[in-house]
Amino acid sequence: SLQNMLSQAVEKETRHEFALTMIQCKVLKQLENLEQQKFEDEDVVEDIKFMLEKLGESVHDLSSFDEYSAELKAGRLEWSPVHKSEKFWRENAARLNEKNYELLKILNHLLQASDDPQVLSVAAHDIGEYVRHYPRGKKIIEQLGCKQLVMGLMHHVDTDVRYNALLAVQKFMVHNW
Predict the structure, then answer these.
(1) Does CATH number 3.30.420.150 belong to domain 65-174?
(2) Which InterPro entries does this one have (predicted)?
(3) How many angstroms separate the CA atoms of 168 and 123, rounded?
(4) pTM of this structure
């Protein structure tokens, strides 16, 4: 059960990842809805209370970067507030270099593999923001092959994808020469 994932995971980081995934999948909202219902089985009521408490604690510990990272790893990019936040990019652009550029490589993979226009738009936007806020970002993006992928999106059939790709390429040209 979901409760076991949170209560029996040995490592704190694993518990945190499980909680983060559950929050990303809107489990907390579903639990809040379930809490409003009446259940005769006391175990169900206790499980719901436990899960609400644990996920509530995780929400308080959750940073915007954790949220961004989880969204990226899930491959379900949406226009959540972090993508458009100047403060987020100023504070966190360099963190995309962590773990041997893991998150940038995920963005690169999404640019290659996704056929969802929203995912492509957000990924292109994020690459542009990374380049704008990280001094050596342009060079890293070129080395990973993201620049070519974003440039290719300037010919995409979807207008939002083309627009965000164009903005990202503009940032490649303007920033950090």
Answers:
(1) no
(2) ARM-like, ARM-type_fold, ATPase_V1-cplx_hsu, ATPase_V1-cplx_hsu_C, ATPase_V1-cplx_hsu_C_sf
(3) 10
(4) 0.70
Question: What is the Cα 151 distance to its own chain's centre?
Answer: 22
Where do we find the tokens 């408490």?
53
Residues 105 and 75: their CA atoms lie apart, in Å, by 12
Neighbouring C-alpha atoms within 13 Å toward the C-beta of 71: 19
Residue burial 76-112, b: 16+ Cβ < 10 Å; e: rest: bbeeeebbeeeebbeebbeebbeeebebbebbbebbe
Find the length of the chain.
177
Domain ranges for the chain, please list them.
2-62, 65-174
Q: Write the pLDDT tens digit of every residue in 8-27.
A: 766 777 777 777 777 767 78
For residue 57, give the amino acid letter.
E
Amino acid (one-letter) located at 77: L
Identity at 121, one-letter amino acid code? S
Of 173, 108, 168, nearest in space to 143 by CA: 108
Contacts of residue 105, Cβ cutoff 8 Å, sequence gap at least 6: 144
